[in-house]
Fold these 2 entries.
Entry 1:
Amino acid sequence: MLILENVTRRFGSFAAVENVSVQIPQGQMVGVIGRSGAGKSTLLRMLNRLIDPSDGVVRFNEVQVSSLKGAALRNWQRDCAMIFQQFNLVPRLNVLTNVMLGRLNHRSTLLNLAGSWSRSERAMAIMALERLGIAQTALQRAGTLSGGQQQRVAIARALMQSPKMLLADEPIASLDPLNAQIVMDSLKSINQEEGITVITNLHTLDTARTYCERVIGMAGGKVVFDGPADQLTADAVRMIYGAEGEDLSEGITSTSLGSSGGTESIGSLEPAA
Ligand SMILES: Nc1ncnc2c1ncn2[C@@H]1O[C@H](COP(=O)(O)OP(=O)(O)OP(=O)(O)O)[C@@H](O)[C@H]1O
């Protein structure tokens, strides 16, 4: 169970995230939605301590995440893998090596300095790539792959960490609808098959509805909605997106994603850009 208690992050006097308290049981798939600047990325980054809360507490089971230091903090960051909109691969290295880099925090410093990978690490990386359907790219330079393939490499690298939780910061914002669907299907299957908690920031409401059992809506740094996707009523959408919610149309489907699990197609509710 991940627990946030009155978590606040200020930049100067401005509160990007204010007084957020939520509990996320292990194995949930959670979508965090909200307008640009609502505080979604800041919230996610505090979970794996890329940035620290100004106030409040983040706990994972009995561990007080927000006060970890040194090796314990590195262990937490290993358990709490993160993928990003811009993939963050090393473009000049091949795909296999990029994926194996996810294993660094499991190795001794000496082994890392030696710079060699074991047979079992290679096999694990190939298996992760196979799971994501891109094993054929293993020896290609990562920078030569399409955006959708690169994001799948990033997910494979995250899996190499054997994480308890996968944080995804706008994982499909740079992708076309087909690649976005492939990436979201991958996150969903990892969530369902490995029981890994997935918390993902999303720009499009329809994606959150399609893939996430729970949606957290943020506005002005605060949580203004927290519930199952099917409770995202028009009123809830207005709370999250404010006046722009008035302009949302059920009919816009250009970025609508239907999961490969055969989810019934639903109308897209996408805020005006
Ligand atoms: N390092 C920083 N210094 C100052 N202000 C920051 C910093 N990081 C974020 N902010 C501010 O905090 C607010 C929330 O930013 P955040 O990136 O969390 O929003 P977001 O909901 O993820 O937006 P987007 O969807 O555009 O990524 C914004 O007003 C942003 O300008």
Entry 2:
Amino acid sequence: MVEKKKRPVVIGVTGGSGSGKTTVSRAIFNQLLGHSIMILQQDSYYKDQSHKTMAEREETNYDHPLAFDSDLLLEHLNKLLNYEAIEKPVYDYTKLNRSTETVTQEPRDVIILEGILILDDKRLRDLMDIKVFVDTDDDIRILRRIQRDTKERGRTLDEVIQQYLETVRPMYNQFVEPSKRYADIIVPEGGKNQVAIDLLTTKIQSILVKHGNNKVFNNIDTTI
Ligand SMILES: Nc1ncnc2c1ncn2[C@@H]1O[C@H](COP(=O)(O)OP(=O)(O)O)[C@@H](O)[C@H]1O
Ligand SMILES: Nc1ccn([C@@H]2O[C@H](COP(=O)(O)O)[C@@H](O)[C@H]2O)c(=O)n1
């Protein structure tokens, strides 16, 4: 009998900033802990800005597709699909730049690709087995963002509001929300939507079997 070539399963999780993408991705990750699984965040692939001054970096539109090194992300995703390890970039929010360090990411059977603009890029979309859009009202998302950016990213309320009005909201309307049409599943209530998480994990397990990955692995590396 000819043995089927194994192929990892790719789940794309998108939605606006603060919608609950990370929470949903972690919920799926935790529910599939027995499998070989990883989360790849689009945020790690913000373009290198070493040639820019700090003032110039503050001017960057971080919600536009051109802010990301999508070619590198695509190259890495293709490597992971071939069961090759990647040197994942590390983003440093304090420097508004990619760090000089990289992290070795070993391939896994389940790849959760998470980020605001992953469904906007057809090349990435075409590699996904399941496309998920986490749908959360704008007012909830901005409130979450204010909390996160003032507590964890050292930004003032005025800065958060200005960035939201100048780039986050218009880019969401132009690129993120329209990408919802490509989603297989739209998840309201994000990580708290246990029915959606259960349905997704069951579907992932059935695709794993179809892709020749019917073994349950011990998760050696649980770093995200
Ligand atoms: N369904 C939910 N109910 C309440 N709080 C939530 C829910 N989903 C996410 N959060 C909280 O909202 C914040 C943003 O969620 P996160 O998953 O990081 O969003 P994203 O990755 O889309 O920016 C986090 O503090 C998280 O704990
Ligand atoms: N230097 C940066 C880089 C990114 N952002 C914001 O992050 C958001 C995406 O991440 P989420 O976890 O919130 O989805 C995006 O909306 C960028 O505006 C930033 O503020 N500064």
